Amino acid sequence: MAEQIGFVGLGIMGQGMARNLLRAGWKVVVWNRTPSRVPPLVEAGAQAATSPRALAEQCNVIVICVSDTPDVESVVFDESGLASGLRAGSLVIDCSTVSPAATRQFASRLADQGADWVDAPVSGGSEGAAAGTLSIMVGGSETAVGRARPVLEALGKAVTHVGPVGAGQTVKLVNQILVVGSMVSMAEALVFAQAGGVDPDKALAAVSRGAAASWTLTHRGPQVIARDWRPGFTIDLQQKDLRLVLQAADELCVPLQVCSTAFHYYRAVQKRGGGGDGNHAIVKAIEALAGVEVRSPR
Question: Is 68 left (phi over 0), alpha (psi -120 to 50) or beta?
């Protein structure tokens, strides 16, 4: 493993991802905007950098996992950003979920420095990040993706090259369209069961082995019934992704009615202070409309 790996962004996803790189035997240098998140990684064997630039000066492969498009641009192109410390031949792997159009612009700017860009957004929540079982959608050249693959395989079990730079971000938005659709369906179904006088635990058990089965139903349905709003992925981050989806859909002239509805449901929960809840808390908006609260009778 000749590559020196840098990791930028130690949030709800990045912590687990960086730890899996360490477990896989990579030498890892880390940086995070909030310094308090760095010491646990140092205790696990990572080195700490004082800035993105300092990290780039030490590392030839750098993984980014931050919240939004402006965050990626800042960490890469600010005065002390990664770009100011990158060498020719460096590889940047962006695991954030950001704008496909912006991703192509970022890649073009780094190409002028002789550095490659791979967009590799991930799906699987904090559970998948911790377990190293993420699904990763990858955009980039064959050569760059081939170089990135050993790093990505330490983070996920399904690493799929879907096309050139920007294609990974587009497929991640496809993923999010499906995720929010399943969240809305699950929430409506559980509210409907509760309103119909059915034990939601029994309803969930009855449908989760048939054609209605899904990851969302299996993993988030029990949390809704238990009123457990701990996030695998927060509402605030889901809203950010939905903004990206709806912006891209507008550019492509594609109608996305379910995503638009989900956006407004999530906004209602945010207005009540629930932005930090898990994205399954979308059910709270539907409960408010129905005047029914999903809850186990036990």
Answer: beta
- Which structural domains are found in the chain, ordered by start? 5-164 (3.40.50.720), 170-290 (1.10.1040.10)
* CA distance linking residue 262 with residue 267, whole number of Å: 8
CA–CA gap between residue 246 and residue 260 (Å, rounded): 7
Q: Which of 157, 172, 271, 284 is catalytic?
A: 172
Q: How many CB atoms lie within 10 A of CB 83?
A: 22
Bridge partners, 5 (sequence order): 28, 61
pLDDT exceeds 70 at position 226:
yes
Tens digits of residue pLDDT in 31-48: 999 999 999 999 999 999
Beta carbons within 8 Å of 264's beta carbon, 6+ residues apart: none
Listed in sequence order, the residues at least 6 apart from 131 whose beta carbon sits closer than 8 Å to its beta carbon are 16
Tell me, yes or no, if 172 is annotated catalytic: yes
d(CA 259, CA 256): 6
